[in-house]
């Protein structure tokens, strides 16, 4: 039996004081069973992104501890940076990795939101799949006016938080919590230096112009390699699997006499996304992730 | 950094007394970091196979404890069963899974052999990749005459063990220890009920008749589905990857106007064997197993 696993990728409004980011990372690591996989800070944005995983309740607890520590260490009254933000712990998304549904992550977001509002007195907004209204699905709408603007507008009924009183925390501001699907950064390189081919293929495969539902795509030029690339985000690899994207790009490219040189996955990818691809091409029947030797080992 | 991992699949001469098999399983589980993945007993063979994994030294220790426990609980003087055997712990192969070479497993086999001979006074033979001479690579040669025959012949120079005195242990007999590569049981189903097609393809892909180096293959009939199947063992998935086998069977089948209905992996498979297939078909460049989310988690 595999243990359910959730990923959390919170963004904090601190990217210039490594010791502060370290304290937040330590708060996450202090929860047993939670693994911090990545942390990266941007000095210009004055912002840090931490990636951690574990069982749902452990991940929720780690997120709470991190938000709490950030509230102690970051003062939004003094914060400056290029990236839009409304709080010390600015955005906290939960992502289903395995044995968990997006609805489970919505539930997790709600419980954490209630807890943050009750115990830390930070107003909380729910976004993406956890949003309570259509216009709050989009993060940009919630962050309109940023910290400074929201401070004035939070008392307006349409800007009231989903949890907590309609008053900004004096130093930590507000926090956006939500649930979204795992995002795979996936690029396909073409044997052409004609960027217009990559752009035409991108239009064909992306949802916004009639293509695959969970694909965002752009045609770009890799100047150093003199190759055109279809650069994509796959926002739901279970419903729109990688191999479906690959095959569609391949077919569209053929129309222009172009073929695929290679593809690349940037950053992390859930094992199931690749097992699915292997299973498709090898026409595997009745294969289960439980048959993967390492999965059996690590999950006992 | 991934921790190195070795698999051990010892065979014990006891398949009728579950409580004895349980005691041996408990001995394996008593070593921290070792995971028992599978155990299966055959009453007719009067034999059990246990599968466990972990870091090399932990796996060696667990194998020693299991051999020791089996020597206490199994009396070869009373053992009867259909399967050839020479000892209580009959055969003990080490298999590289990850971050370990076959040579590391040979070294492990030698160290365990020395220990078993020194501390338990059981004579030990080395086989397959750990063999000290060409004729001892083959298990059947070492087991010739079985327990009863070897008892008489062990004093002959050509049958002397690799470790220990040339005298059988009074109850535990002798043990064969070695190293081999991971074996994947892989079958491909064809859309024909003509078994001769499966047999012809099997001859083409297997090493013994000029095919792929690390493939054993047979053509068989799945009576219940009325399908012919190429049933294979892949004995080195790194040197002869699954997708190479799949593609060759597909190409050969085309010659007979036959196509592949599906394929199946029986039992466990190392994650890398499937990542390799996904990477091949998706033409992934610079992809590393470290990018698999779960691998990062489990290995920290």
SSE layout and pairing:
2 copies of one chain form a homodimer.
Chain A: E1 5-8, E2 11-12, H1 18-29, E3 35-42, E4 47-54, H2 56-73, E5 89-98, H3 102-120, E6 124-128, H4 139-142, H5 146-153, E7 175-179, E8 184-190, H6 195-205, E9 215-222, E10 227-234, H7 242-254, E11 260-266, H8 271-281, H9 293-299
Parallel strand pairs in A: 5-7, 6-7
Antiparallel strand pairs in A: 1-4, 1-5, 2-4, 2-5, 3-4, 8-10, 8-11, 9-10
Kindly describe this structure.
The structure is a homodimer of 300-residue chains. Chain A is of the alpha+beta class and 300 residues long. Chain A folds into two domains: 5-179, Formiminotransferase-cyclodeaminase, Chain B, domain 1; 184-296, Alpha-Beta Plaits (2-Layer Sandwich). The first copy, chain A, has nine helices and eleven strands. Chain A has helices at 18-29, 56-73, 102-120, 139-142, 146-153, 195-205, 242-254, 271-281, 293-299, and strands spanning 5-8, 11-12, 35-42, 47-54, 89-98, 124-128, 175-179, 184-190, 215-222, 227-234, 260-266. In chain A, strands 1, 2, 3, 4, 5, 6 and 7 form a seven-stranded mixed β-sheet that branches. A four-stranded antiparallel β-sheet of chain A has the order 9-10-8-11. In chain A, helix 6 (195-205) packs across helix 7 (242-254). The longest helix of chain A has 19 residues, at 102-120. The first copy, chain A, starts with a strand and ends with a helix. The A-B interface holds A 5, 7, 35, 37, 53-54, 97-98, 189, 242-243, 246, 260-265, 267-271, 274-275, 277-287, 291-298, 300 and B 5, 7, 35, 37, 53-54, 97-98, 189, 242-243, 246, 260-265, 267-271, 274-275, 277-287, 291-298, 300.
